[in-house]
Design brief:
single chain, 125 residues, 5-stranded antiparallel beta sheet, TATA-Binding Protein, alpha+beta, 3 helices, 40% helix, globular
Length: 125
Amino acid sequence: MIRLQRAHRLAPPQARSAVQAAADELAREYALTSGWDGDTLHFERAGVRGWIRIAPERIELEATLGLLLSPLRATFEAHIAEHLERRLAAAAAARAPAKARAKTTAKPAAARPVEAAPRAAGKRR
């Protein structure tokens, strides 16, 4: 059995979109079929059955592997986790407010032009 949990700060529609994108990628690779029931995406194929549930601050996944696929559990788990984490990170980055993005692109203070201070009368440099 594979069990994963990942924290997130996404709104439900963004979390659902990220989970669906990860599921679509995995479906293409492993010929999975899937469907939503509320906040839970159920998926299956010969030798694999499971679900991904969207909770307010986390994503939960559980998958059961058949006898022939059980020896590959660690490989499947790492692959599923990589897809899910990549899609959650992309959704979080897309959600970042424009204000935060603008801050990171602002010029540092040293790069901004600085006005020369007026010289005091009678002083030489």
